[in-house]
Amino acid sequence: MPSEEELFALRIEKRERLLRQGDPYPASIERSHEAAEAVALLETAEAGGAAETGAVAVAGRLTAQRVMGKAAFLDLTDGSGRIQLHLQRDVLGEAFEQLDLVDLGDFIAANGKVFRTRTGEATVAVAEWQVITKALRPMPEKWHGVTDTETRYRQRYLDLMANERSREVARISSRVVSSVRRFFEGRGFMEVVTPVLQAEAGGAAARPFVTHHNALDRDFNLRIALELHLKRLLVGGLDRVFEIGRVFRNEGVSTRHNPEFLMLESYEAYADYRDVAAMVEELYRHVAQEVLGTMQVEHGEHRLDLEAPFARTTFRRALLEHGGFDYTEHRDEASLRAVAAERNISIKEPASWITVLDLLWSTLAEPHLIQPTFVFDYPVEISPLAKRKVDEAETVERFELFALGFELANAYSELNDPVEQRERLQEQARLAAGGDDEIELADEEFLLALEHGMPPAGGLGMGLERMMMLLTGEQSIREVILFPALRDRQ
Known about the structure:
The protein has helices spanning 4-21, 35-47, 89-92, 149-154, 156-162, 164-186, 227-236, 273-292, 315-323, 333-342, 353-364, 418-433, 444-450, 464-472, and strands at 52-68, 71-78, 81-88, 107-116, 122-133, 190-191, 197-198, 210-213, 218-222, 240-248, 260-269, 296-299, 302-305, 311-314, 373-379, 388-389, 392-403, 406-413, 457-463. It is an alpha+beta fold. The model has no long low-confidence stretch (mean pLDDT 94).
């Protein structure tokens, strides 16, 4: 079998021969129908009693080729599907000989009438055809596709070329974003755009990426959340706003984490966290029904019922049930570390009480939350932007939505007391000075805006790739991100 270098050289030679005959890379071609449309056109003609259609012009990638003397059958595939082409030497004359210069993976254009062969295949009887892109490297092997995970992620175009499942996941993921946008617009929210480059990376507890702006001669952070700018808009009088945008967190990668991901955040004046929970439940049902046509979602061994009322619990109750301890009885760092030690959970250094509690939660409770479950009422220390509960000063009005053992959404009754907000962020700054690098940082511009008065509001944050994972049944976030972050090629 020829080596890859030999095959490349052979295709280069064919390209040179095609160049002598014309341009194998034309700037434009005429296409009247996609493959699926041409097939549908034939079905319509047959329903009316005709055996063929009028002439159509199709174009796409050559994915199969069968040459039999004076005739050939080619499979042409485009974004809509596949259609067969029938080429005959008696019809095409010298143009038939151009088949010698064609390889799988080339793009071709053809026109002719669509008929059905004796085997029932919708087929274009080619009257004219041409090569419109000569591919210099071969397609992935047909029957096995691209199965190597590294190749699938690093060369996603090969994955999409060879694997229908990957194309379907990409389509569903795109429809999820469109459906989410329609949902919020239908509820009277206004979509806005806020800065990616920010002086302070606030709105979440995460390490930012830092970049330098040459003209201003200053460093900026790539945003880690959308929150603080969107809440400025509430101050300005825009009562319902949302944004769908990429955020960037300089952290590890896993099956559920990527350094950049697509975030939805929404803020609604005069709503609280329970209003937001009702909206999120409706959102998931809306998107599942619109994108999948069902609210019963298969995900590995689990079947999620999005139509049934989502379960509800509290942070304290879930830790008692799954972790076997009451965090309110362990209010100092040493006591909480002892709980972790009893359960053989290692703690990185340095780590504050906040960080230890968060690790205990994610290790002991999260994995048990399989069906959609709202977890309400978090300790104030780990929720510096949320409003305290009236009857529980150490607890805030916050919920997170979980399913399949991971977080899907996070929401607050937003803290709008500027004095208390400053005090909480100053406490966070004290913890950061102690070495804890996953702490909410103060943003003076945000605090200044808050001092002008922000109405009571309910805020929501959702990583949309997590929603895509749930609805596609995928186990890894890398399957729903077309170009995930990877280590350097070895």
